[in-house]
């Protein structure tokens, strides 16, 4: 059935688009947010305790709203940003909004794990704060950040299927319309297989990259 | 040999006879910390100078304020009051760029090396130059020089995780010397190394001091390190300098109680973890009394442990020592830790062990941190 193959390929492509755009946005803004969280606390490099607490609270708020609710609540915002509330690009908005704080918290953990002694060493050798950021924090945390990005991507693939339920297209959309509503087991199974392959590829590549970057043993 | 040949063959005098120049000067330096609502006086009115070209040691028990003092020199730590002059200059009130610039004249090495795991040996050594904006070609050249200096030519492109502790510290030293500093600060730089590696690192520090005329300030809790390479030593106790002078003088005739307690470890070759915790006074109710008992075999009896425990109490621990039989007589030394109250029962102990009471010496008190 060429119809189904066509549908299947289109849906896969849509999922890839949704996830990659949202992942890119989440990686950039999430990392910036993580850096802000680890460098502005009391006694940190750029100590701004009030800003730190404020940003921390906002992150917590977004982390605690279930994705399915975020999808709905963000509808006006989504229309503002992409001009529509359906389709791949519309789905990328809630996916990114959920992904940014999610990835920020994971990246934050990796950045906090960087040994304070290394920061001191770079300060002692005549490094400024920006050197601490670029020469110590980011490169030392990089393997952990890459692993965190892998986790974020996998979570996003799952969420993107949910976004499919509200008219975003993608594999989730196919699974619900054909597999769930029409009891088409074959479609359901193929969609699931597609998702499994996608997640496995992301995880394998992410793990390999993190291992390559890690020189700690 | 005629006078001319004499001049040609003789090496110039090692130390030019000139006025000693004070390179680091502490003036009425104090530092408090606020920790959990409590105020800790880490340094109190410290006042002394470190001379250019010397190897200066700072000793003291753990928590005496050694690291704080060292870190105030390069401003990783700030004074609460008082001043520190480095090369006649007060580094307080500098902006970020000026302070960074000033720190390039002060190298520092650490107990746990603090090498960046994401960078190779060469990249670690070149980092101080890179962040100072030195050209890549120049960095390459300097890194090669430094690798040769510390004897790691073959490890250029290896990551630190693949190095031994001694090699890591060599990388740390090379990195600290990248900007040709006047001063090298060493915070327990050999404390994570085995004795043999410690010796080789100390030898390297001595060479650097002599050949590059780098003033070395080192802190350690290992008395043997001080004896090995330092010219002068300051003894810190609870944030105060209680003794300061040439090593031969301080170690030969210690004046302060604190110094004697620290030196006990040198004389008695106590394990390093015990060394750092000996105090002249019991710090807490859990402190143990440390005794050194010399068995001279005069009585001809083997030391019985039952009576020993009876005299000192059931909590008595044997920390160090042993007994040798020389012509059938038990000779040796025991270092014991026991309850502080046993201080009053030393006569009893001497009788039980059949040794003169003069053979039992109090080394100090052992803290449990
Ligand atoms: N950042 C800090 N905050 C609170 N207390 C500190 C801090 N740094 C050091 N101290 C305290 O100051 C005293 C001296 O510490 P330190 O200089 O590290 O001693 P040493 O190096 O001789 O072991 C200790 O009581 C320690 O607990
Ligand atoms: Mg210390």
TrEMBL record, chain A:
Keyword Protein biosynthesis among record annotations: no
Keywords linked to the UniProt accession: Cell membrane, Membrane, Transmembrane, Transmembrane helix, Transport
Annotated organism of origin: Aquitalea palustris
PANTHER family hit by this protein: ABC TRANSPORTER PERMEASE, D-METHIONINE TRANSPORT SYSTEM PERMEASE PROTEIN METI-RELATED
Protein name: ABC transporter permease
A Gene Ontology term for the protein's cellular component: plasma membrane
Family, per entry: Belongs to the binding-protein-dependent transport system permease family. CysTW subfamily.
Topology in membrane: Multi-pass membrane protein
Record InterPro entries: AA_ABC_Transporter_Permease (IPR051322), MetI-like (IPR000515), MetI-like_sf (IPR035906)
Automatic annotation (TrEMBL), chain B:
InterPro entries with a match to the protein in the record: AAA+_ATPase, ABC_transporter-like_ATP-bd, ABC_transporter-like_CS, ACT-like_dom_sf, MetN_ABC, MetN_ABC_transporter-like, P-loop_NTPase
Keywords on record: Amino-acid transport, ATP-binding, Cell membrane, Membrane, Nucleotide-binding, Translocase, Transport
Top-level lineage group: Bacteria
Residue span(s) of domain ABC transporter: 24-263
Gene3D superfamilies recorded: P-loop containing nucleotide triphosphate hydrolases
GO cellular component terms, A-Z: plasma membrane
Record-linked SMART domains: AAA (SM00382)
One Pfam family hit: ABC_tran
GO biological process terms, semicolon-separated: amino acid transport
GO molecular function ontology, one term from the record: ATP binding
The protein's role, per its UniProt record: Part of the ABC transporter FtsEX involved in cellular division. Important for assembly or stability of the septal ring.
Family: Belongs to the ABC transporter superfamily.
Protein name: Cell division ATP-binding protein FtsE
Protein source organism: Aquitalea palustris
